[in-house]
Amino acid sequence: MTATSARITAVDTFDVRFPTSRELDGSDAMNPDPDYSAAYVVLRTDAGDGLEGQGFTFTIGRGNDVQVAAINALRSHVVGRCVQELCADPGSLSRDLIGDSQLRWLGPEKGVMHMAIGAVVNAVWDLAAKREGKPLWQLLAHASPEWLVSQVDFRYIGDALSPDDALRMLGAGRAGLAEREAMLLERGYPGYTTSPGWLGYSDDKLTRLAKQAVADGFTQIKLKVGADLADDIRRLRAAREAVGDGIRIAIDANQRWNVDEAIDWTNALAEFDPYWIEEPTSPDDILGHASVRRVVAPVKVATGEHVQNRIVFKQLLQAGALDVLQIDAARVGGVNENLATLLLAAKFGVPVCPHAGGVGLCELVQHLSMFDYLALSGTTENRVIEYVDHLHQHFTEPVVIRDGHYTAPLAPGFSATMREESLAEYRYPDGAFWIADRAGQEDAA
């Protein structure tokens, strides 16, 4: 098989679930018992080079099978495609998947179907970067501005961002790229940690982990809030006492409140100097976010992990509804749509601080922030990537944190490959862990 004739031969999917609810890892006011999960996809080829494309989208347990089914519904668009053409133009597949009129009816460009598209598109980018022998951040940062613009769908966002705007910003962003890349490789990209702040943790555990975060070099932590105001006041007081005044503390309500509640609750916590309030209300309530932002300043408003597409991000920016934009590598339609969102944020001058944690989200989104720093925004000022110390051991190239910074990954690809042993152990419902777990429950009954 020649390199030019190789085709995609299979789209394999896996329902992978981890029992994180049992330790309350990931617990918050809206999601008290998440089982962190991945609808995982592998693109296989007949190229004979051993390279595969891996991608996934993140869920929190029940419904992960629905997400896998959505990925399977895209298989006919992918199998048989020329590998070389696909990797040279991932946007071609993105447009075809989004443009399937019958599947589009289930969105359009939102929800389970759109997340499935993101998983497949991200797997193509993973394969493309592996074939280039580069980590994805480096492939993107060194790509020509013209090619990057060709990967962006400007439909519905042209009133805020034109191809000419994007080309101009990407052209300007190349100035000083080599120097920034050297700094990135030496220092890494700043992170912050949510590990101390899960709502189900005791005050002692919160305090211990907050102090550890500072010792590990983090200059920002995040706490979940929104279930009980008295508890939040007590927990924030404990956290502030643990880390001191020089460390930023962000708070995250995970969409729990109405607009008036968000304002009152955030103002009640203002004495602890929260840096931002994240997802204060519904991710679809653009004007609600704008109302909250006007009243709770100087506390910043951050949102984005559940924003479903570039069109909603556009409106949040146009409405002045957020101070911090939080992309998610696996919520929207993959790298292509995240490029659009990064360009929108740069156009409006709003810093991007990605959502991560979950299963593999840290591994993915580091590439997008590093590209943004190197070739678009040119700065890490007031920019941090979320970090959660869970489940990284299940990836062949897990993130490496050093002194509170993400170390730039050097392995080719998108850092999306899960270990075969983890797939065998945690595949649901027939992985070794889940078989043993059911047997244990039956014995206990």
TrEMBL record:
EC id: 4.2.1.68
Entry-linked PANTHER family: ENOLASE SUPERFAMILY, MANDELATE RACEMASE, MITOCHONDRIAL ENOLASE SUPERFAMILY MEMBER 1
Catalytic activity: L-fuconate = 2-dehydro-3-deoxy-L-fuconate + H2O
Pfam families in the record: MR_MLE_C (PF13378), MR_MLE_N (PF02746)
SMART domains membership: MR_MLE
Organism: Streptomyces phyllanthi
GO BP terms in the entry: amino acid catabolic process; carbohydrate catabolic process
Names of required cofactors: Mg(2+)
Protein name, as recorded: L-fuconate dehydratase
Domain named Mandelate racemase/muconate lactonizing enzyme C-terminal: residues: 203-299
Family annotation (Gene3D superfamilies): Enolase-like C-terminal domain (3.20.20.120), Enolase-like, N-terminal domain (3.30.390.10)
PROSITE patterns: MR_MLE_2 (PS00909)
Top EC category: lyase
GO MF entry, a single one: magnesium ion binding
KW Transport (keyword) present: no
Keywords from the UniProt entry: Lyase, Magnesium, Metal-binding
Keyword Metal-binding: yes
CDD domains per UniProt: rTSbeta_L-fuconate_dehydratase
